[in-house]
Structures are given as C-alpha cells and as structure tokens.
Design goal:
CATH superfamily of the largest domain: Translation initiation factor 3 (IF-3), C-terminal domain
Largest sheet: 5 strands, mixed
Strand order of the largest sheet: 3-6-7-4-5
Order of helices and strands: EEEEEHEEHEHEHEE
Helix content: 25-40%
Number of helices: 4
Distance between the termini: 51 Å
CATH class of the largest domain: Alpha Beta
Strand content: 35-45%
Radius of gyration: 31 Å
C-alpha cells in the first residue's frame, strides 16, 4: 500500500492507494496515469466530462474511489472512478468461472493389431466407447512389423470395423492414414 500526503491550505490529507497488477491486461490507476487530460466516467457509468488528470484524481479521492485508466488509446484517454479492489475481485471471479466451464479434451490412444481376436476387439471397443462418452478423443493405432506389411488390407478392414462399432458415440475426425509402418486414425465424440 502506498500513502501520499498532501497539504491544502490549512489541512493535511492522506491518500491511500491500493495497487497490484492483476493480469495480462494491466490497468493504470491513480498516480500512474501520465496523460494531461482524461475523459472521466463516474462510478455509476455516467460521463463527467474532460478534465485534467489531477482534478479527476482529486474528485475520485473525495469520493473514496480510485481513478482507473480504461482506454489509454482513446483521444483523450478514458478513465473511470471505481473501487479498484472490488473491480479486481470481480475480474478474478469471472476468470475462475471461465476456467470451470472450460472442458479439457484429452487424446487417448488404443492400439490394435490386424490379427486381433473377437474378444480383444470388443474389449478395446468398450474402452474407446468409454473414452468417447467422457468427451475425449481417441487415437487408434495399428503397427506393422517386418513381413506384416503385406497384410495392410486386413489392417484397414479392422480399422473400418472398429469405426463402425463406435459410430453411435464417435465420428472419424481423421481418417485412417498410413505413416511408415503405422496406420492411425482419430475418433472424436459425437456432439449432443
């Protein structure tokens, strides 16, 4: 906290200034405002007019508020009288709410083989079904080793069957693509 002492005629007034940078968009408040003139808006949102920064600061201090520079690019810059601590608290609250509503999508991976058995296929499909229902994307990978490269058509059939099995909960985000010795595709959850 910063304390400024000002002497006017016969009385001494102490000004208390609260200041901490809150986020990427830093706002200048009180004495940090370097402009000579500002367009002032009061706490209720009503325009007061254009006045010198010192006069606007004095008016804000008389009301027990801070002078916050809202639009420094404007001509003249726009400053608003407000309780900066309360404003900062509201901004942090909004950011927390936005974070809560934000959904993180993970990319889960399932590995298949071109000679996968029926039960193993069903188990992998159940896992992928669960991942897609929880809102995650699923990357399906099939690796070919050595002479297995000659069985590429069988691998594509297994991938197509896997995609058909999960058609009710997922759509193909990226179709099966051969990259070296690996066939991979990405399934995304169906939007409800």
């Amino acid at each position: 906290m910063f304390v400024r002492k000002a002497v006017f005629a016969s009385r001494t007034i102490f000004f208390y200034r609260r200041y901490t940078a809150i986020s990427a968009k830093e706002l200048l408040i009180n004495e940090d405002i370097k402009a000579n003139e500002v367009r002032v808006i009061d706490a209720d949102g009503e325009p007061v007019g254009i006045m010198s920064t010192n006069a606007a600061l004095q008016m804000a201090y008389d009301k027990g508020l801070d002078l916050v520079l809202m639009a420094p690019q404007a001509q003249p810059p726009v400053a608003r009288m407000m309780d900066y601590g309360k404003y900062r608290f509201e901004c942090e609250k909004k950011e927390k709410e936005a974070k809560k509503k934000q959904q993180v999508i993970e990319l889960k991976e399932i590995q298949l083989s071109y000679r996968i058995d029926t039960h193993d296929f069903e188990t992998k499909a159940r896992h992928a079904h669960r991942f897609l229902e929880s809102g995650n994307k699923v990357r399906v990978v099939m690796r070919f080793r050595g002479r297995e490269m000659s069985h590429m058509p069988m691998g594509r059939e297994v991938m197509a069957r896997f995609c058909e099995t999960l058609a009710d909960v997922g759509t193909t985000d990226k179709p099966p693509v051969l990259d070296g010795r690996i066939i991979s595709m990405v399934l995304a959850p169906v939007k409800k």
